[in-house]
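Form 7-S
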Amino acid sequence: MAATGPAPLLPAEAEALVRALQGTELRDAGGQGWLQQHECVEKLNMHAILSASAGQEQLLTELLVTYAKIPVLIGELISVEIWKHKIFPVLCQLEDFKPRSTFPIYVVLHHEASIINLLETVFFYKELQKQAETMEFEISLKALSVLRFITDQVESLPLSALTRMLNTHNLPCLLVELVEHCPWSCREAGKLKKFENGAWHVVPPEDQVKMTKLDGQVWLALLNLLLSPECQRKYRFDGFNKSQLLKLRAFLTDVLIDQLPNLVEMQRFLSHLAVTEPAPPKKDLVLEQVPVIWDHILKKNAGKWEAIAKHQVKRVFSPTEEELKLQARRWAQTYSLDMMEALAPDKPRCRVCGVVAAKRCSRCRNEWYCTRACQVQHWQKHKAACNLMAGELRRADDP
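Output:
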């Protein structure tokens, strides 16, 4: 039997992958060079998750900072976002767009989720249109976690960034909307469901008042923004904003405060806000920062969206059968079965007795066992399927 547990990358391997990260051009999305970049991101993403589970994520964080790769990842994040909004819709409408496989396009759409997940893990220690919508929802939830991390550093943010957060985008009121409407919670067939760990789960009645991780991220972000003296000095507490913030009082129940005691301070702040008129924000001279990366990509490719889409249909998303096989082998190496199962939240269980298993069949790599005795006991039932699976694996490995 084969043992489980793929190890994180060696420090030298992680350093090589980090150093290999480079910015890419919009028209090259999905091409060979771009795919190599995606493989680097995926390997680092999986390495980050495994390292975080072992409490060893600090090295990757230091590498990304030392080699100044955080801006590169953010640039790639913005580039994929622009590709989704400017290139992808044009691509789907082209008459000659008839790909042999849609997986290469899925990889481009998935690239954004991989980067945001990598950034979240490093910061905290963890049909195509339908797929795109699903990933958009999951990316938004991860972005909420990243936003919470940013609010933790609110005192050290540049003045222009803080002004954009508070007054240009009015994050406090946006967070109030999330508290009110809670998009990660819904009712279906009379049962309460919540989105956690990448899936929707039915919540039993005894846990329905329990705060989820996403609920906590919103409340912590509100605490960071509303109770910071600097934010209170900059934020416009006008009639509308004040009325929106006071809606939070209805949600600050004793049960919620028991789970997050710091909310007592917010309760006091809102009680004070209800009976006072805060001073107008101090008007400082603000040199507004513009979204440089976004504007640069848009200006560089303005008027070329259809041309880029046609180029990608011809050069990127219409591979030959041989190219697809070659790329499939590369993907199989990146998304290895051992690695995927190591990242899964649920541990494998023994096929015979159902306890957590640490061994797997070394021939077909499909069945799990806790001991050699359980494997021997199950062999007569497993033999036929094992031979079939092992034969298919050998054929798949042949070039």
